[in-house]
Amino acid sequence: MIKGIGLDITELARIQKAIQRNERILDRILTNQEKARYQTLTSQKRKAEFAAGRFAAKEAYAKARGTGLGRLGLQDIEVLPNAAGAPVLKAADQEAGEHIFLSITHSEAYAAAQVIITQGE
After folding, report:
1. Numbered residues of the known binding site for Mg(2+)
2. Cα torsion for 50, 54, 60, 64, to the nearest 10°?
3. What family classification does the UniProt entry report for this protein (predicted)?
C-alpha cells in the first residue's frame, strides 16, 4: 500500500551560490557520511548536483511523509548509495515494514527527486 508520494525540484545555481557564500550550509544539508562522499567529488558542478540532489530528496521525503521539514530535520534523513550505486534513503522516523523508494535526476539547471513510501509487501 502506498503511504505517501513526494516530489521536489531544486535549482543547481541556488545551491551553488549558497555554498559559495558560506560552505557551512553543507553542514545543514548533508550528514557526515554524505559530506564525506561530497568531498570526494572533483568538479564544482558535480558537487552542486550532489548537494542539490540530496536536498531535493530530503524535501521529497518530507512531502511524502506529509509533515514537511518542520518536524524532521535534514540531518534526520540520509541518502547513501547501495552496492549498485543507486541512492537509498534512510530516515529517523521510518516505521517498521515501510519501504522508501527514491529516484534522483539532474539536468543542466535542476536536480529533482521523487520519493514513494509503501507499507507491507
Report:
1. 8, 59
2. 140
3. Belongs to the P-Pant transferase superfamily. AcpS family.
Residue tagged active-site, from 3, 17, 45, 106: 106
Residue 34 CB contacts under 8 Å (≥ 6 apart), including other chains: 54, 78, 79, 80
When divided into structural domains, the chain yields a total of 1
pLDDT tens digit string along 62-94? 999 988 777 788 999 999 999 999 999 999 999
CATH number at residue 69: 3.90.470.20
Active site residue 99: no
Domain that holds residue 37: 2-119
**pTM exceeding the 0.85 threshold for the entire prediction:** yes
Q: In this predicted structure, what is the pLDDT of residue 71?
A: 79
Q: Can you give the pLDDT at residue 57? A: 97
